[in-house]
Design brief:
With 233 residues, the chain is an alpha/beta fold. The chain has one domain: Spore Coat Polysaccharide Biosynthesis Protein SpsA, Chain A. The chain has seven helices and eleven strands. It has a seven-stranded mixed sheet with strand order 5-4-1-6-10-7-11. Strands 2-3 form a two-stranded antiparallel sheet. It has a two-stranded antiparallel ribbon with strand order 8-9. Strand 8 and strand 9 form a beta hairpin. Helix 3 packs across helix 5 and helix 5 packs across helix 6. The longest helix is centred in the C-terminal third of the chain and has 18 residues. The protein is globular, with a radius of gyration of 18 Å. It starts with a strand and ends with a helix.
């Protein structure tokens, strides 16, 4: 069993306050994108990566891939759209004819455990869809517009979604086509499959599989990498 990966790196990364989007910023001497790619290719189940980028970042991206090669598996560049949902849809359109399973992953999540990726692929192959997630640990409050607490939400069934989100290709393609036709939007791909009645199973993720969004996240990522380097050295 093999799968393709759509790696989404077409965002603007405005919350970082940097000139370049997050995937192209340096993290301990290498672009964040490179760290994520190195995590993904550790899985023996991945046959090809479709890297979705903003059109204006193609020269930079090609330069990075050339500088840090080889990656061991083919990497195709795909131009993304205005929103993440548009970028994923364009990535799906670029898949090879024989592609059966696809894992959709954020380029700004560099600490993906390959075993988690593998479990998501196996789960999607069996059930149709899989979302990597972790249980909510904190107490969740519902508040009014004035900041007043109006309720406490039971957390026993609450999970925080991560990526990868992995699907049988026909299922996720249909979900995106219908969403586009019906002008429906969602914050992740699993929600699009859910809205058309598809089955999405949860795969236990990791707290390390966080998305780098802010400068503080970048500092945490540097600490994690330094710890890993020290442990392996």
């Amino acid at each position: 069993m093999q799968a393709d990966v759509i790696l989404v790196a077409a965002g603007k990364g405005k919350r970082m306050g940097a000139e370049l989007p997050k995937p192209f910023l340096s993290l301990l001497g290498a672009p964040l994108l490179v760290h994520t790619l190195r995590s993904v290719i550790k899985s023996a189940l991945i046959r090809k990566i479709f890297l979705v980028i903003a059109p204006e970042r193609e020269p930079l991206c090609r330069s990075i891939l050339l500088s840090y090669k080889p990656f061991g598996i083919p990497i195709s560049l795909v131009h993304g759209g205005i929103e993440r949902q548009d970028s994923v849809r364009l990535g799906l359109a670029a898949l090879d004819v024989g592609s059966e399973i696809v894992a959709i992953h954020d380029a700004a999540r560099p600490f993906l455990d390959p075993e988690i990726l593998d479990r998501s692929i196996v789960t999607a192959a069996e059930h149709g869809g899989a979302v990597v997630a972790i249980p909510v640990k904190d107490t969740i409050k519902s508040i009014a517009e004035d900041g007043r607490v109006i309720g406490t939400i039971p957390r026993q069934k609450l999970w925080m979604a991560q990526t990868p989100q992995t699907f049988q290709v026909p299922i996720i393609r249909e979900a995106h086509v219908r969403a586009s036709a019906e002008k429906a939007t969602a914050t992740d791909d699993a929600a699009l499959v859910e809205r058309v009645g598809g089955i999405v199973k949860v795969v236990l993720g990791s707290v390390l599989n966080f998305k780098i969004t802010t400068p503080e996240d970048f500092q945490l990522a540097e600490m994690i990498l330094k710890t890993e380097i020290k442990a392996s050295g």
